[in-house]
DNA sequence: CGGGTCGTCCACCTTTCGATAGATCCTTGC
DNA sequence: GCAAGGATCTATCGAAAGGTGGACGACCCG
């Protein structure tokens, strides 16, 4: 049997010990270290190389989210399970954005916590059922609208020009990229604006972003 | 006990009947209708007003995602549980973006399906544990980077101008909104570009989007 | 074949934008 | 007090963007 090496980070003595006892009660889980704040968690994690870090989000000094941010940036980063008493969107979204692989509220059963650690260790993610709905809503809100029928109005050339425009290129740069005259690009831009009912190239760039024609660069 | 009214939509006869049997086996669940494709599902849902719709994603004609899109646009929309055999990102993300409240793979246990229907009926969301990790990854990728230290460089006025700019307003419009001269706005824009290391207002708008200074409008 | 539509291209003219220099006000520290 | 620095404001000028008109070729259809 493979032993899962776990680091527990929580500023409250009682919670820290409770977590340690719960997890150490399992034969396949070994709490190899604990930390009382984010800074110590980062230090211990880099030193001891746990498989999974159970991280309280609300801690003095460097908080849990900042610590998660640091740890996921490291090489061979551990799997991060965010844990919190307070069910705030800011914690949920912040932790996931920072790179947490799991999110649990502290009122969960010990069994759920144990199962969560195992899930994470096997490469899967885990979201507390109480907050899954909100994650889904937020995800839907963040997702680009699919291409609308309006985009069919654009010719291939116009579509290409729109993508370059939305990356911040000037008419001159677009012209160079397409090997055509700048005056021609202006016409294309103009037709794009007309067809999509927009006023300036800034609107066109926004449109491209909101419709997923261009995507945010990978971090 | 409240009875949960369920609509089952699946193009395959066998799957449809299996789902019906599983769900009708529960005393608090009543499958009130079935549908063989997306179009019929939409029609039946609007007619029979189920609490929960169990929707197969891969169906001929109007597929499940399109049907979900239609149904969530309706008033007093039912809760939508997306179900699929094929574990494709396109299905997962597409269904959630369209408005599904839950996503399950078809190899799940009957008990899981039943529990999912109850969860959805109680207003919660549900994601198959097998795909939770991917949803989290995608969510993190979509989430705007938190405000970078660079933003501290911007004065309140400049920050405000940036937000208006990123909504497509011209210098003149920004001037009117702030009750200052257009020439002044130009200076603010110029300082924004300088401080953030950008070249044109289009870059500034892109920057604002990528850093979550402005958010996509609600659909 | 001839006419219509569409995509692509270019040139001219006006408006808007971007860069620069300088003025005023307010805070901060010596 | 007053000097230094920053924030906010204004004005001017060359550069870029946007609006309009029109040319050319490809294609479809009667």
From TrEMBL, chains A, B:
Give the sites modified to 4-aspartylphosphate.
56
Record's CDD domains?
Answer: LuxR_C_like, REC_NarL-like
UniProt xrefs under PROSITE patterns: HTH_LUXR_1, HTH_LUXR_2, RESPONSE_REGULATORY
Q: Where are the transmembrane segments?
A: none
Any one Gene Ontology molecular-function term assigned to this protein's record: DNA binding
User: Which keywords fit this entry according to its UniProt record?
Assistant: DNA-binding, Phosphoprotein, Transcription, Transcription regulation
List the protein's name: DNA-binding response regulator
What organism is this sequence from?
A: Streptosporangium carneum
């Amino acid at each position: 049997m493979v032993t899962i090496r776990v680091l527990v980070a929580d500023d409250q003595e009682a919670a820290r010990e409770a977590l340690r006892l719960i997890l150490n009660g399992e034969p396949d889980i070994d709490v190899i270290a604990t930390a009382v704040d984010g800074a110590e968690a980062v230090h211990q994690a880099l030193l001891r190389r746990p498989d999974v870090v159970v991280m309280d989000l609300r801690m003095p000094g460097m908080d849990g989210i900042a610590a998660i941010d640091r740890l996921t940036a490291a090489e061979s980063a551990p799997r991060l399970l965010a844990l919190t008493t307070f069910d705030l969107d800011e914690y949920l979204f912040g932790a996931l954005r920072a790179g947490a692989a799991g999110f649990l509220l502290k009122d969960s059963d010990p069994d759920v916590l144990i199962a969560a650690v195992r899930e994470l260790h096997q490469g899967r993610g885990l979201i507390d059922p109480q907050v899954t709905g909100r994650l889904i809503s937020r995800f839907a809100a963040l997702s680009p609208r699919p291409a609308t029928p309006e985009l069919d109005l654009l010719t291939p050339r116009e579509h290409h020009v729109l993508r370059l425009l939305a990356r911040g290129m000037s008419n001159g740069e677009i012209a160079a990229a397409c090997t055509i005259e700048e005056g021609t690009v202006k016409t294309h831009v103009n037709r794009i604006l007309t067809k999509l009912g927009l006023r300036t190239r800034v609107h066109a760039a926004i449109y491209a972003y909101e419709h997923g024609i261009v995507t945010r660069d990978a971090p």
